[in-house]
Amino acid sequence: MIDIIDSIMDFLKKFNPYILGGATGSVIHRMRTQMSWSEFIKSVVVSIFISICVGIACKDYLEIENENIVFVACGLSGTFSKLILDEIEQILKLASIYAKLKLGVSKKTEE
Question: What is the value of pTM for the model shown?
């Protein structure tokens, strides 16, 4: 049990700036938008997830060394996390349609 707690704490220490950036972005989004506490908690969770993804992409894929730039990117992604997810959803839908057309898969319609 202690090993699990230590693993969670190591994870939180490693991604702490990204989590903080996402939470900060979510707070900014709440100041701009009227929402209930349950909606706010859901927004915080989504914002933290998106900001961790952005933080990892900035550090590992884009190889950004400046921590301040990564933190700003995480904060912005937290603020606009719902819009980002909506855009990704649209891209995935279009990619799915494209793949189905290329593979020749079509829905069977009932007669």
Answer: 0.69
